[in-house]
Design brief:
This protein is mainly alpha-helical. It contains 16 helices and 2 strands. The protein has helices at residues 18-112, 121-133, 137-145, 151-162, 168-176, 194-208, 222-237, 239-242, 250-263, 271-280, 287-293, 300-309, 313-323, 331-351, 359-380, 390-407, and strands at residues 209-210, 214-218. The protein has a two-stranded antiparallel ribbon with strand order 1-2. Helix 3 packs across helix 5 and helix 14 (331-351) packs antiparallel against helix 15 (359-380). The longest helix has 95 residues, at 18-112. 20% of the residues are buried. Belongs to the Frigida family. It comes from Dipteronia dyeriana. Keywords: Coiled coil, Developmental protein, Differentiation, Flowering.
Length: 534
């Protein structure tokens, strides 16, 4: 066995080699890099965890705040139920005595006005309240349908009257059920009652909103709300029978959309349908507000662009002001483009051969309507500084003046007989007294000339006279005026030599003469002509 070296004994140390040193150096470098990489990795993981932890903490805080807010709202709604009921009961008690005291007066009004012809606003309100307090929905509807001329008064009176109902929402559904969602009338007589439906539905909103928290809660029972949903689905199902959205009448569309808003039954899945309906009836004044209430605020820019592309720039202006997109869609250029399109449309009407008789009238009416709409829009949105309406008003006055001048009758003397400038004969004395002021310039046909009767004429007066300037081949018609008959034939030409037609062609009626007979088509004009002489 080998001997074990003594630890205390000095032994000769082997000197390290350069290769070993390089190996160790490389190993240390690798370890350092590996450590740095691991350190960076764990640092990144720590930072990610901190970020996720902070995001989760923020979400928890947001959820806690939302939960607290929801609980507060629920608590408030729960508390306000008693308050709302108490307010309603107080209103009911306050009105009970007034209703009872007015029953006799209401009956007298009904007897005195069986057809509902009342002019007094207070009497009108009492009749409406009588229907509502008795929940007589059909009678209420028939009465409202006859008051289109008093629609402004009815707009303020119906909400007051509906507050007398036990269940206003149910009362309104029963009232409009005769014409919505399907018109059940046997005799429609082309009488559209969409205006009455919209009026009643709009009047219901201030009645059913919660008196404490407002529109966020509607005082509509679940049963009535389900009934309103069924009505909406029935109307949507009838779209195909009506020929699609393009063929539905605007009053029906307006009633449907107002029905959705009034009862709070808007569906997110039907937003595209609502958008199409709003665009198809965008010219209605209430459509911008309805679009916002239907949740179409995010789609407004696309809807405005579509209206502009369809030539409805004026409607686009109303939508831009409703949603605050005036800076994106400038109103003045839109109004000018609308007027330009209206002038083009008027010019195309003048050039249309199918409207030759009424072309000038239709073109003027088209331009007048556009001018009035633009002037009203300028005044409504205070755009006078950017788009002065003076020139538009002058143009409108010119068109109206021209319209009035065309309606004036021709200046035909009624009783005064005038002699031609060259001393020719006078026209018949009673020509201007005829029921038709436009006396024909041609003699009566021979088939209508009766044989002369000696008993019709005084002695010494010949029934026929032949003026010296008359053609030999022509005999004047019988004189029917006795001794007051003209002494000479008033016409300067014979029926064989009719006067030539007037030169030139007029697009409409000539100045100071309305279009009459065959004028403008190559025939002789029917108004009184001057007397020509050979």
């Amino acid at each position: 066995m080998g001997s074990i070296p003594d630890p205390g004994e000095l032994t000769e140390l082997t000197p390290p080699s350069f290769d070993e040193f390089q190996r160790q150096t490389s190993l240390m470098t690798s370890c350092t890099l590996l450590w740095k990489e691991l350190s960076d990795h764990f640092t990144s993981l720590e930072q990610n965890l901190l970020k996720k932890s902070a995001a989760l903490r923020n979400k928890i805080q947001t959820l806690d705040s939302e939960t607290k807010a929801s609980l507060d709202i629920l608590k408030k709604r729960e508390v306000t139920i008693d308050g709302s009921v108490e307010i309603t009961m107080e209103q009911l008690e306050d009105r009970t005595d007034a209703v009872l005291n007015s029953l006799s007066r209401q009956k007298e009004e009904e007897w005195n006005n069986p057809d509902g012809e009342v002019d007094d606003g207070e009497a009108l309100l009492m009749i409406l309240k009588n229907f509502c307090s008795k929940m007589e929905a059909r009678s209420f509807w028939k009465f409202v349908a006859t008051k289109k001329k008093e629609i402004d008064d009815m707009r303020s009176l119906i909400p007051v009257a509906l507050s007398e109902c036990v269940d206003p929402a149910k009362f309104v559904l029963e009232a409009i059920s005769e014409v919505f969602p399907v018109d059940k009338r046997r005799e429609k007589n082309n009488n559209d009652l969409g205006w009455a439906c919209v009026l009643v539905l709009e009047s219901l909103i201030p009645v059913v909103v919660d008196p404490v928290i407002g529109k966020s809660r509607l005082l509509v029972t679940p049963t009535v709300k389900e009934k309103a949903k069924e009505i909406a689905e029935t109307w949507k199902a009838s779209l195909e029978e009506r020929g699609g959205i393009e063929n539905v009448k605007t009053p029906d569309v307006h009633t449907f959309l107002q029905h959705l808003v009034t009862f709070g039954i808007v569906k997110e899945e039907d937003v595209d349908l609502y958008r199409k309906l709003v665009v198809s009836s965008a010219w209605r004044k209430q459509m911008p507000k309805l679009a916002v209430s239907l949740g179409l605020g995010d789609k407004m820019p696309d809807m405005i662009k579509e209206l502009i592309s369809r030539g409805q720039q004026l409607d686009a202006v109303h939508f831009t002001y409703e949603v605050g997109l005036v800076n994106k869609f400038l109103p003045v250029p839109l109004l000018k483009a609308f007027l330009k399109d209206a002038r083009k449309a008027a010019a195309s009407i003048l050039e249309d051969p199918n409207n030759a008789g009424r072309a000038a009238q239709l073109a003027a009416r088209k331009e007048q309507s556009a001018l009035r709409s633009v002037i009203k829009c300028i005044e409504e949105y205070k755009l006078e500084a950017e788009f002065p309406p003076e020139n538009l008003k002058k143009r409108l006055e010119q068109l109206e003046k021209a319209k009035v001048e065309k309606k004036k009758p021709a200046a035909v003397p009624a009783n005064k007989r005038t002699r031609a400038s060259n001393g020719g004969p006078m026209p018949p004395a009673k020509a201007g007294r005829s029921t038709n002021a436009y006396v024909s310039s041609f003699p009566a046909p021979p088939t209508f000339v009766r044989s002369p009767s000696h008993s019709q004429y005084p002695a010494g007066v010949s029934p026929y006279q032949s003026p010296p300037y008359q053609s030999p081949s022509y005999q004047s018609p019988p004189t029917l005026y006795g001794t007051r008959s003209p002494q000479a034939h008033p016409y300067a030409y014979s029926p064989e030599a009719a006067p030539p037609p007037l030169a030139g062609s007029y697009p409409g009626a000539p100045m100071n003469y309305p279009a009459y007979g065959g004028y403008g088509s190559g025939l002789a004009p029917a108004y009184q002509q001057a007397y020509y002489h050979r």
